[in-house]
Write a structure and sequence with these properties.
The chain is built from 13 helices and 18 strands. It is an alpha+beta fold and 462 residues long. The chain folds into two domains: 286 residues, Zn peptidases (Aminopeptidase, 3-Layer(aba) Sandwich); 121 residues, Alpha-Beta Plaits. The strands form five sheets. It has a six-stranded mixed beta sheet with strand order 1-2-6-3-7-17, sandwiched between helices. Strands 11-13-9-14 form a four-stranded antiparallel beta sheet. A three-stranded antiparallel beta sheet has the order 4-5-18. Strand 1 and strand 2 form a beta hairpin. The chain is globular and about 80 Å long.
C-alpha cells in the first residue's frame, strides 16, 4: 500500500476544518436538552460517510438516539472490517475550568503537542478518533486502495451506557457480520512509544440515596438527636475501603483475575515516570491499593470510586439544616472474570446491610459491562502491530487500559468476532475533563495508520 502521507498533507486543512465543525455541535447524550444537537450530529456523520465513499449509509432509529450505519462492500469474498465509534460526548461541566468554551474548538500548542492540539469536548473522546476512520476510508476510496470491505456503526449513547446498542446488534447480526471489529476509543503510551490496548476493565455504575427525616430539619433543634443522611452516607462510603485501600464488599474479589509474575513484569516494561505523573496531576503522592504499582492499580485491579455526592444546602452563604436526603453516584471498574451484574448485586446487598437505624437506603443500578481482553496472537492484533510498525517505525507495546467500553464484550458474544483497539490519544488529553484536547499529529497519524491495518489484515487473511 502506498503511503497516505502525501494525501494527508494535501488535505490536512480540510481534515481539520471538518473535524472542528463536528466538534462545534454539543452532542451531549446525558442531557435531553441537547436532543436536536444529537440528531444534527448523526446527520453530519451520515453526510461525511457518504462523502468518504460509503455506498450505503442510513440512520437507524432506536428507542434512544440513532445509530449511523454505513458500508462499502467491494467483494463478498474479501474480509470485512466493522468500525465502531460514537458521536455523543460527555457533559462539559464544570464550565468555569475550561480555558476556552468546550464547543468552540481552538488549536493551541502544548508541551506534548508542539504542532498543536484541538481543544474541545469530544476532540479525543470520540469524535476526533472516530473521524480518523472516516478520513482513512476517504483516502483509500479516492486512491483506489481499499483492499477489503468496510462497515461503520457509529452510535450516540456510549457516554450513557449504550443502552440501546445490544438490541440493535442482536437484531442486525447479518447486517453487522464481519471478520474483525476496529475501534479507536482508547489511547497510547506516547507519540514516540506506540501501544495497542489489549484489555479493558468492566464497569458497574450505581446511584445511592440515603433518606432520614421527612424534611430538612433545623440543625440546632434536631442536631445530635436525628440521623443526618449526609453524615451517614459519608461514613458508609468511607467504610467501603480498608486501611490498605482494599474494597470491603464481601465476595468482591472472588473472581478477580490474578496475573502471573511474568505478566506483571512484562507490563512494567512500559515507560513510566512516577515524578512526571505526579507533576502532571499536581499531586505530591500517588494513592491506591497496597501491593500494586500505579500502572497496575489503574489497569489490572478493580476499583470503587465516588463520582459525585450531594445533599443539603450547597448555595451561597449559610443555612443550618440537617438534610432529609443525601445522594452519591458510584462507579466500580472491574477486571476479567468479574461479572458486572453480580458485582452490582453484591454492592447493593452490602450497602443496604451497613446502613444504621434511623435512615433508609436505596441503590439504583444505572449501567455496566464486562471486561475484555484481546489475545496478542490473534490475526487482528498482528495486523495492527504491523500497521503501527509501518507508520511509527517501531513495534507497539501491548497495554491494558483502565477504561471501559462495555459493548466490546457484547460484540464478541453476539457477532463472534474479536475487537482491535487502535487508540491514538494520550492520557494527558483530559478526556471527560475540562480542556479536553487531541493532538493534530495524533489525528493525522491515525489517518495514516488505519489504512495500513486494512492492508495487513487483508493480506494475512489470505
Amino acid at each position: 500500500m502506498k503511503s497516505a502521507k502525501s494525501y494527508i498533507e494535501k488535505n490536512k486543512n480540510r481534515f481539520l476544518d471538518e473535524l472542528i465543525e463536528l466538534l462545534k455541535i454539543p452532542s451531549i447524550s446525558a442531557d435531553s436538552a441537547y436532543k436536536k444537537d444529537m440528531l444534527k450530529t448523526a446527520e453530519a456523520v451520515k453526510k461525511q460517510l457518504e462523502k468518504a465513499g460509503c455506498d450505503t449509509v442510513e440512520i437507524c432509529e432506536t428507542p434512544g438516539y440513532p445509530i449511523v450505519y454505513g458500508e462499502k462492500m467491494i467483494d463478498k469474498k474479501l474480509p470485512t472490517i466493522l468500525v465502531y465509534g460514537h458521536y455523543d460526548v460527555q457533559p462539559p461541566d464544570p464550565l468555569d475550568l475550561w480555558e476556552s468554551p468546550p464547543f468552540e474548538p481552538v488549536i493551541k500548542k502544548t508541551k506534548l503537542h508542539p504542532e498543536g492540539a484541538i481543544f474541545a469536548r469530544g476532540s479525543c473522546d470520540d469524535k476526533g478518533q472516530m473521524y480518523m476512520h472516516v478520513k482513512a476510508l476517504e483516502y483509500m476510496t479516492k486512491t483506489d486502495q481499499l483492499p477489503c470491505n468496510v462497515k461503520f456503526m457509529i452510535e450516540g449513547e456510549e457516554e450513557v451506557g449504550s443502552k440501546n446498542l445490544a438490541g440493535f446488534v442482536a437484531k442486525n447480526k447479518k447486517k453487522l457480520a464481519n471478520d474483525v471489529i476496529l475501534i479507536s476509543d482508547t489511547g497510547m503510551i506516547a507519540n514516540d512509544t506506540p501501544s495497542i490496548t489489549t484489555g479493558l476493565r468492566g464497569l458497574s455504575y450505581v446511584e445511592v440515596e440515603v433518606t432520614g427525616p421527612n424534611r430538612d430539619l433545623h440543625s440546632g433543634l434536631y442536631g445530635g438527636a436525628v440521623a443526618n443522611p449526609i453524615n451517614v452516607l459519608a461514613k458508609m462510603i468511607a467504610s467501603l475501603h480498608d486501611k490498605n485501600n482494599h474494597i470491603t464488599i464481601p465476595g468482591f474479589y472472588d473472581e478477580v483475575e490474578k496475573l502471573s509474575k511474568k505478566e506483571r513484569e512484562k507490563m512494567a516494561e512500559a515507560p513510566f515516570n512516577l515524578k512526571d505523573y505526579e507533576k502532571a496531576l499536581d499531586i505530591d503522592a500517588v494513592y491506591g491499593e497496597k501491593g500494586y504499582s500505579t500502572n497496575e492499580r489503574n489497569s489490572i485491579r478493580p476499583t470503587l470510586d465516588v463520582n459525585g455526592i450531594w445533599g443539603g444546602y450547597i448555595g451561597e452563604g449559610a443555612k443550618t439544616v440537617i438534610a432529609g436526603k443525601a445522594f452519591a453516584k458510584i462507579s466500580m471498574r472491574l477486571v476479567p472474570n468479574q461479572d458486572w451484574k453480580k458485582i452490582t448485586e453484591l454492592f447493593k446487598n452490602h450497602f443496604e446491610s451497613i446502613a444504621p437505624k434511623g435512615v433508609r437506603v436505596k441503590v439504583t443500578p444505572h449501567h455496566g459491562g464486562q471486561a475484555y481482553v484481546t489475545p496478542i496472537d490473534s490475526l487482528g492484533y498482528k495486523a495492527a502491530e504491523k500497521a503501527y510498525e509501518e507508520t511509527f517505525g517501531k513495534m507497539p507495546i501491548p497495554q491494558r487500559s483502565g477504561g471501559s467500553i462495555p459493548i466490546v464484550a457484547l460484540f464478541e458474544k453476539e457477532l463472534k468476532s474479536k475487537t482491535i483497539l487502535m487508540g491514538f490519544g494520550l492520557d494527558s488529553d483530559a478526556i471527560h475533563s475540562p480542556n479536553e484536547h487531541f493532538g493534530i499529529w495524533n489525528y493525522l497519524k491515525g489517518i495514516e495508520t488505519i489504512p495500513q491495518f486494512y492492508h495487513f489484515f487483508t493480506e494475512m487473511s489470505k
